[in-house]
Specification:
- The chain is of the alpha/beta class.
- The chain has two domains: about 160 residues, Periplasmic binding protein-like II (D-Maltodextrin-Binding Protein, domain 2, 3-Layer(aba) Sandwich); about 150 residues, D-Maltodextrin-Binding Protein, domain 2 (3-Layer(aba) Sandwich).
- Helices cover about 35% and strands about 15% of the residues.
- It is built from 16 helices and nine strands.
- Strands 1, 2, 3, 4, 5, 6, 7, 8 and 9 form a nine-stranded mixed β-sheet that branches.
- Strand 1, helix 2 and strand 2 form a beta-alpha-beta unit.
- Helix 7 packs across helix 16 and helix 8 packs parallel to helix 16.
- It starts with 7 loop residues before the first helix and ends with a helix.
Length: about 350
């Protein structure tokens, strides 16, 4: 059974760094609801069980890993962070000969996580909305950045500084990886203009469990697959997901092994186990997340292959972009934009 060892707020103050005995479970640092229960049960039949520790912000995750004092065995991470932290010596370099099932990965995705991580799932950033409250389904970033008056105080954004900037950068005709100071300044201006309509910058999956927000959010910035987590706790299952027609962030979440993991061999076995096609298939069938595993993709039902919330139309994908590492000063500028928005909101 999946469970969270610590509340996300405790992650901010650090995870315990005590040694882990060989008989203890593997410690997996991940988004909530990101691994199939069926998969974990299959793994636990002949391997050490997994204990999940949840984060709800990639910035919090990266800060925790950067400290280097948390005892973790596996982490869900994006390519940009994996490369940066790997080059800093905090993640173990992937050795393909130790992971024979990497051969199952679609060539399109195989190298999308760099040298320190392995692709796990992929999807898009987009709009989550309550179909029972919005008369018309949103299909553009304008619906989020310049919301209708009725949505004021009913919008959830995210704290992640890169993801926050996707909508304004695309709306202004820029690339999501832009380091142009003027374009970033104009994007910040759009987000500041939107801010009075924002209820929270807490990730919507977490915000819906907050009594102060639970019945107030009608539109949110989120990720493909989130609608199923939201519907699991919302009567009537009204949540829907759409990738805006202008294009979006094409994200890939990866699995990496921290360099201080006391169970590196077992962690590598889990990554290889995950890439067996019948196991990789479960991420799509049970969690509604796209799989980069070609063997698993061949096993998908026609219904899943034709689901646009899983596999957006090709014209939308053609306008979507992957994140790439930018110059350090751009990284800092983006962080300041995100921090300024959240701090300003919390002070009101």
């Amino acid at each position: 059974m999946r469970y969270c060892l610590f509340l996300c707020s405790l992650v901010l103050t650090g995870l315990p760094a005590s040694p882990v005995a060989a008989a203890e479970p593997l410690r997996l640092y991940t988004w909530e609801g990101y691994f199939s229960d069926t998969l974990l049960q299959h793994w636990a039949k002949s391997h050490p069980p997994l204990q999940e520790i949840h984060f709800d912000s990639s910035d919090v995750r990266d800060a925790t890993l950067a400290r280097g004092d948390a005892t973790l065995d596996l982490v869900v991470i994006n390519e940009v962070s994996a490369t940066r932290l790997g080059q800093d010596g905090l993640l173990t370099r992937i050795e393909p000969h130790r992971l024979p099932h990497l051969a199952e990965l679609d060539p399109r995705w195989r190298h999308s996580c760099g040298d320190y991580a392995v692709p796990y799932v992929w999807g898009t950033l987009g709009l989550l909305y309550r179909s029972d409250r919005l008369a018309k389904a949103p299909d553009s970033w304008q619906s989020l950045l310049q919301p209708a008056p009725a949505l004021r105080g009913h919008i959830a954004m995210v704290e992640d500084h890169d993801d926050l900037l996707v909508a304004p950068l695309i709306t202004l005709g820029g690339a999501i990886n832009s380091s142009d100071p003027d374009l970033l300044r104009r994007s910040f201006a759009l987000l500041k203009a939107q801010a009075p309509a924002v209820l929270t910058y807490q990730y919507v999956v977490s915000a819906l469990r907050n009594p102060a927000y639970s019945d107030l959010i009608d539109l949110a910035l989120g990720y493909s697959g989130d609608q199923h987590l939201l519907n699991a706790t919302t009567p009537g299952q009204p949540w829907r997901f759409v990738t805006p027609r202008e294009g979006s962030l094409l994200w890939v979440d990866c699995l990496a092994v921290p360099s201080n993991s006391p169970h590196q061999a077992a962690a590598e076995r889990f990554i290889d186990f995950l890439n067996e096609p019948h196991n990789a298939l479960l991420a799509t069938e049970e969690l509604h997340l796209g799989t980069p595993n070609a063997g698993a993709a061949r096993l998908l039902s026609a219904e899943l292959r034709q689901d646009p919330s899983l596999f957006p139309p090709e014209d939308v994908l053609a306008h979507s972009q992957l994140f790439r590492e930018g110059p350090p000063d751009t990284f800092q500028t983006r962080q300041r934009i995100g921090s300024a928005l959240v701090s300003r909101h919390e002070s009101q």
